[in-house]
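Record type: monomer structure entry
Structure origin: computed from sequence
Chain ID: A
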Amino acid sequence: MTNAEKKTLAVTACKVRMGVIEGVHGAKAGHPGGSLSAADLFTYLYFKEMKVDPKNPRWADRDRFVLSKGHTAPGLYAALANRGFFPVEDLPTLRHIDSYLQGHPNMNTVPGIDMSTGSLGQGVSTAVGMALAAKTTGRDYRTYTLLGDGEIQEGQVWEAFMSAAHYKLDNLLVFIDNNGLQIDGEVAKVMSPYPIDEKMKAFGFNVININGHDFDEIEAACEAAKACKGKPTAVVMKTTKGKGVSYMENQAGWHGKAPNDEQYEIAMNELRAQLAEVEAK
């Protein structure tokens, strides 16, 4: 990846994070912490990796993305809006009555959403079905899904992983956002999923550990997944919950609440400063 490409992605990631703050502040509710930790992945997938067409969201040969941790919809919405699927100006309508941008992704109302998700653990099962459908019908689209590290405490997740390996779904790429925190605190203390990578290997996955805020590492993982044949790939991303907003970083309390007006201004000023710094390079 060239420096120019990385700069463009970094600029976009700043805008995605700003969109997250705009959304949850406008809603006076929502989930900023995990949206911010996954913002770099959302950016890479929709602006570099995936075959998608904002003018034709239901394009049959598009790559699919399933947000299994559906509560981080503010991050996905911000990426879709900046990619051109719908107006960025609509982000502050998040969770409002009659808004099409509800608290969890709705494939019937939001352009670019491939699956309605909400109940944790279920999205990855859908992603497995999509990948299996592509194999069965001879289509070459790829399926991507993102889970939280707290979400993988769900039993259904492991049934889906077992199925993905059983059917040799090498067209499936599973990302696990390992920011270490869930709504009740540290995942290691609530119900430890560790060692995540070794468990995924035991379930038949090709496993890659990366820094989820490094675009070069995300790209390398995606390319390695494409090169791996006969088994699905899992990418365990080490991330910072609340990444980009100082008072939200590594704070479990920001899993599911919105900033007030003063906190909104602080967050936006920090993100504007980061955007200006990136653009100046």
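Annotation 1: The domain at 3-280 is CATH 3.40.50.970 (Rossmann fold).
Annotation 2: The chain has one domain: 3-280.
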